Amino acid sequence: MRNKFDRQLAQLNDMLVEMGVHIEKSIALSAKALREQDAELAKEVIALEDEIDQMEKDIESLCMKLLLQQQPVAGDLRLISAALKMVTDMERIGDQATDIAEIILTIEGNPCMEQYTQMADATIKMVRDSIDAFVKKDLQTAQDVVKYDDVVDDLFDTIKLDLIERIRNDCDNKEWVIDLLMIAKYFERIGDHAVNIAEWAAFSITGHK
Hints:
Largest sheet: none
Structural class: mainly alpha
Number of helices: 6
Shape: elongated
Strand content: under 5%
Helix content: over 70%
Radius of gyration: 19 Å
Mean pLDDT: 92
Number of strands: 0
């Protein structure tokens, strides 16, 4: 019975990693779509949302099966509970990437892309590392993700100040600037969700959040 349970736990890890790959792809594509003003890439991000939503349901279903059909000990129970919490944040990251893509379909003009690209790269790193921390039971990596959120927050503040200055100097383009601010905010929220994932990874290891 325990062997079957361990196989299902390994399957859970694999499913979380696969979902992580999909949300990383969504973030990267949304940033590329913004950089290149590519509507087709933005539509690809939107299309990925259904796959990510289905992955969330499949992982939740497996977690419930593990809880109801097996008899998890305390450590296993923490792990499964953490996975259920993590997958919600992972799905919301997919939602945020979709929100970015939907804005891209409506805006024209190129923002200063360096900070946006840096935000996307930073959030992808946070997502990947937070899931790795869970799968590998690596508390230090989980803690590093939480600290790394300062990088994303600083980039958001830089973009925000730049956009405020643009509003002051360009009264005819306020709607475009607000759209760009919303995109930056969505990237910042992705970082927050990655922090949540890392904290649940830490909980699965230590029992404390």
